[in-house]
Design a protein that fits this description.
Chains A, B: It comes from Pseudoalteromonas neustonica. Chains A, B: This is LacI family transcriptional regulator. Chains A, B: Keywords: DNA-binding, Transcription, Transcription regulation. The structure is a homodimer of 335-residue chains. By secondary structure, chain A is of the alpha/beta class. Helix content of chain A is 45%, strand content 16%. The relative contact order of chain A is 0.11. The interface between A and B is large, with 61 and 61 residues. The first copy, chain A, binds a DNA duplex (16 and 16 nucleotides) through helix 2 and helix 4.
DNA sequence: TTGAAAGCGCTAACAA
DNA sequence: TTGTTAGCGCTTTCAA
């Protein structure tokens, strides 16, 4: 590294042109002759020069940064450690990078309640991607109402004044349940908290499938963690014995917790109890028996989230959108 | 949102004080009387005012941003989807937030080769935390040599001109292997690639333990993924039959892949083959049998990483440091 | 196709 | 304890 950090003006002097020319060249402005542009870019590289982003952000009123907020429910352990949420963050990172945008990672705790202020007024970011609706959409709504460019990963069917991208959770819940029914299950437990937006839709899909088959619903409402699932199923077994032959779990982590409880009691999967999860995380394939699951297309969703955010940044409006969903049939539900 | 975005000068006018007073008050400068400070802060809140970070960064030459780079090996699938790396990122996020720092997430792909330039010269961040040494430390070294404030999660024993924080991988490998030996295992396979810095240390710990016990080493070198482990163990079984009675896996994901291969062939865990993983990810507890593992203290490590980075930012130097490690004994290795 | 110059909003040195 | 003021490094309008 040189003794002194170069600035735009220095580079301009070196090249014998004006600062505006260098600025334009480095920003690929077609006003500048291609030849000049290339020459200046090369000079910049040679001298290890980089534009000062603070200065350009100040001047251009644009950051090219997107804040990503992991909006987990406080009081629950589902959080920064949830493999699925993290996978989504990873995919969003890729999608943003492809558009030349950077990712400022945040949890709702850091940003406080006033996202609009914290991220946007302060020019930390141009827009926000919220991962997870949480139980209480008040913060999101407030930000959207304040005019913040904002998109959400969640259940697209939720009425909202901001675009939500996510899976068709209703269909997912229905598919999983129909699959269990087709395998011969008669008493299918729904394992998860229907009060949560996305899970609520999955639950309604479950109910719809049961209804068609004249089967009876049975909910074990738990937090979205594997240990809650483990304890939930254990308690159910202790209280009522093996009163079910199928489980539709609201997530794979939950399904795996349930699986553990079953295996410990030598309840055979899928023979005694068939099991379907949701998310298709890496572990679904590795577990034994491997876990059937509803696969969400997080990659496609991430691209859409970024597209819709960009649309808003350009003053266009964007609508909620559903992405495809798919049943991955593995051992835990084969008959 | 108001029709016009307030700036510091507007707020100063509203309050009837100078801009410097407001600036100092909002930055909690003790020069300003506490009473005035509180009054101005409240006024700011009332008017939904936030300092323009671009402007303050430009002026103060400081971003309060730390770039976190996930430095996975290209060509390998271990990456943004690895639960352990992501857990580390999550912990780092928390540790940074506690110091009022923000986290710019990046993968090595986005930043390109010239980190110093991309993050530091461009004033995107004040410093860098690299998660994972990767197989080739050249990039990191170059950045460190260029004077970039930099810390790395990795193997602290690696000779380096930058501080590395991580577990005592040697002891971890030794502990795991000794535990398997104590359980009666005679032929323990090391499952992982010793060419990777951290894993290499684990391997040497494994060798040390074997050596003391006069046992023979047997390495199955694979990528750090569960599917590679699954195939690796399958191949070994096909080629040589059940020629081992213990596996020391270089990560939990790898251990779980191996476990799946064993279960599919009805090889009993831990009776026929005992198994210890590394990392203690959430799945270790959920799997069946539950997976014994070496737990790394990622929380402590994250705090240290941030501390050492801050030290460098303040012109002090910082040394590599080892964090404690612990064997979590579960079913996969009980006798 | 390029240059001159103003100014983005803040902080901190200096003055009071 | 507070105010005045210069200037951080860039982009962009206007002029040539």
């Amino acid at each position: 590294m040189n003794n002194k950090q170069l600035k735009l003006a220095d580079l301009a002097k070196l090249a014998g042109v004006s600062t505006s020319t260098v600025s334009r060249a480095l920003n690929d402005n077609p006003l500048i002759k291609k030849e000049t542009r290339d020459k200046l870019k090369q000079l910049a590289k040679q001298h290890n020069f980089s534009l000062n982003t603070a200065a350009s952000r100040l001047r251009s009123q644009k950051t090219n940064v997107v804040a990503v907020i992991i909006n987990f429910d406080s009081g629950t352990e589902q959080s920064i450690n949830d493999p699925f949420l993290l996978k989504v963050v990873g995919e969003i990172n890729l999608a943003l990078n492809k558009q030349g945008l950077e990712l400022l990672l945040s949890n709702s705790f850091m940003a406080g309640d006033d996202w609009a202020n914290y991220f946007i007024n302060s020019r930390r970011a141009d827009g926000i991607i919220v991962v997870g609706q949480g139980k209480d959409p008040a913060n999101i709504e407030a930000a959207a109402n304040a005019g913040v460019p904002l998109v959400v990963w969640g259940d697209p069917k939720t009425p909202s004044n901001y675009p939500i991208v996510g899976s068709d959770n209703f269909v997912g819940g229905r598919l999983a349940t129909e699959h269990l029914l087709a395998g011969g299950a008669k008493n299918i437990v729904f394992l998860g908290d229907p009060g949560h937006a996305e899970i609520g839709e999955r639950y309604r899909g479950y109910l719809a499938a049961l209804n068609t088959a004249n089967a009876i619903a049975n909910v074990v409402s738990i937090d979205i963690t594997s240990s809650a699932a483990y304890h939930g199923i254990n308690q159910l077994l202790v209280a009522k014995g093996l009163c079910f032959d199928g489980i539709m779990a609201c997530s794979d982590m939950v399904a795996l917790g349930a699986m553990k409880a079953l295996k410990e009691r030598y309840i055979s999967i899928p023979n005694d109890v068939a099991l379907v999860g949701f998310d298709d995380i890496a572990m679904a394939d590795v577990s034994h028996p491997s876990l059937s699951s509803i696969k969400q297309n997080t990659q496609r969703a991430s691209v859409l989230l970024v597209e819709k955010l960009l649309a808003q940044l350009q003053g266009q409006s964007a609508k909620s959108q559903v992405v495809e969903i798919e049943l991955i049939n593995r051992q835990s539900s084969k008959r």
